Queue: 2 jobs
Job 1
Amino acid sequence: MISVLVPTLNESRNIADCLRSVQWADDITLVDSGSTDDTRELAKSLGARIVDFKWNGKFPKKKNWALENVDWRHEWVLILDADERVTPELGEEITKVLENPQADGYYINRKFMFMGKWIRHCGYYPSWNLRLFRHSLGRYERLHSGDTGSGDNEVHEHVVLEGTSAHLTNDMLHFAYPDIQTWVEKHNRYSNWEARVELEGTGLPAHGIGSELSRRRRLKEWSRKLPFRPTLRFIHSYVLKRGFLDGREGYAFCRLLRIYECLILLKKMELSQPRIEKINH
């Protein structure tokens, strides 16, 4: 009834719990970028099939490539990152919905975990993502065509669906950052992508006037023009989005978001400057 796509690269810490959360699916596929840890072995032991992916530095990246090239056994695909978990309640809801689907795709809300706590505020909940859809009708938006230094997987791109959509009731769990080191490592890469897209991106995707995704993109482009962006990011997340209600974890998270915004700006400035060749004396 449903195929599950999990893009991976050295995810041995996460992959077993991830796959156990979708054992009710009869087609689970890892699209793997040459993992050198136990990711592949663990996945095989849990019944997943492995498809190798080697990026050529251009469009498409891993998820779009998989949607286009994997021989999916079912019409519907659920996209799940290795650090995400499908709760039993969500799994039951997905199974029931697909018995008589009323839309071509479904948005799933995520509970974002940070420092062992669910971040309920800071602008990170609700966090709707289109993850369940007829695979022939959905592709990730194309905001940059080349190598941004962020890796071979889609970073913050969203799925563009050629069809109708609806929202599921139950949440997915997202264990993205088990520690500060992981947050810093990932956001160092993410800021590479953000800076490149701001400077060289292809512009707003054609999602249709009035669509939710187009509205969010336009708001983001507008916010890029604001002065003092790092400080405003902290105020927005900690004050306006009530991150202070998440305690010390919320404060730490909002401070890190401020740093992230600063990284984007500095990397964009660096990219826009003429490259100075090294002078040998």
Job 2
Amino acid sequence: MRARRAVLAGAVLACAIAIAHPASLAQTAGAPFVPGRLWDGKTPDFRGIWQARGSAHENIEGRIVVDPPDGKIPYKPEALARRRQNYRNRETADPSLKCYQAGVPRATYVPMPLQILQSPGNFAIVYQENHAFRVFHPEGRPHFDATDWWMGDTRYRWQFDTLIADVVAMTDLAWLDHAGNFHSTEFHVVEKYRMTSANTLEYEARMEDPVVYSRPWTLRTTLYRVTQPGARIIEDECLEDASGVRRHISPSDPRNRVKADYSRWSTQNRR
């Protein structure tokens, strides 16, 4: 009798383990990714070269806009006329094509890599496009007033393993994509950076602008770690065309070396 009870108890325990095991696996699989730490043992380590994929840089609507649910930017009716004009003139009016810095959040999802640089208490991003960079200042310092920078003024904090950045002071000349989506100088962005695996970084940006938009809205995309051996940020140079407008040139273009040819300065000085 005792033997039967022992066998029965063992069978019940085995069934309980068999039932509980898949649930525990699911819980483990669904747990948030925990990134490595910097040498202080506390700060999440986001260092590396990252790049977005896809075509969001052409038009963020219907691609990475997640709120509103229809994927459309909630423009005020009076702002739509400028957006339509931008779209019509996009092949010549897009400031990024003229070598102006892409701005926030556009610099994150342009088809060029970016590099995150970190140490405990310090965070910066260098973007390949147009030599842009951002230094993230710790939260608590007041924002700069009466400025209109291409890359804005950034304050940040850590919320567990998510970096949250508050960005203001951006020029209204910047576009959000090649389709001409835009904002005013009242533009305010709250960014979130969160690693979802060793080689993926989720980027989310919540935008508000009482001049241009009828309500706040959000975009979200994924950046992928560039893992090729020897990968690095390269020079993205521009030269003036015949009309005096600066245009991008290929990194392999021989004219790319003109910037380092200082001999022309001495030649000009001798005249």
